[in-house]
Amino acid sequence: MKKCLVVDDSRVIRKVSRHILESLGFAVDEAENGKLGLDKCEEAMPDVVLLDWNMPVMTGIEFITQLRQREGGDKPKVVFCTTENDVAHIREAISAGADEYVMKPFDHETLQIKLQLVGMV
């Protein structure tokens, strides 16, 4: 079973994401900020990370930058999930190491398509 880590400070987004991901056959873990997300990656590297941009403690960009520098941190597919939709933000996310990008709010079909694009579904 593929593992997905949802890193988002919104409990609602984590809950919705978990529901969608579990229906797609993923084992899901959650973290409410980037620091806790990195801690979870140290314990067990996930196959996919759904990553929020704006969070307290550590932003999504800080998270992905640190993740990609760690041993095995190049393996997970990272999908940014955010309300930031301008081209500059998308470029920044991709150059920091993101594999895909999805706008909030997203639905089951949209998330499934993004996960297919990164080869996870």
Helix content: 40-55%
Mean pLDDT: 96
- Give the terminus-to-terminus CA distance: 11 Å
Identify the strand order in the major beta sheet: 2-1-3-4-5
Summarize the structure.
The protein has 121 residues and is an alpha/beta fold. Helix content is 44%, strand content 21%.
How are the SSEs ordered, and which strands pair?
Layout: E1 3-7, H1 11-23, E2 27-31, H2 34-43, E3 48-52, H3 60-69, E4 77-82, H4 87-96, E5 100-103, H5 108-117
Parallel strand pairs: 1-2, 1-3, 3-4, 4-5
Q: What does this protein structure show overall?
A:
- The protein has 5 helices and 5 strands; from the N terminus they run E-H-E-H-E-H-E-H-E-H.
- The protein is an alpha/beta fold.
- Strands 2-1-3-4-5 form a 5-stranded parallel β-sheet, sandwiched between helices.
- Strand 3 (48-52), helix 3 (60-69) and strand 4 form a beta-alpha-beta unit.
- It is globular and about 30 Å long.
- The chain starts with a strand and ends with a helix.
What descriptors fit this protein?
121 residues; alpha/beta; five-stranded parallel sheet; 5 helices
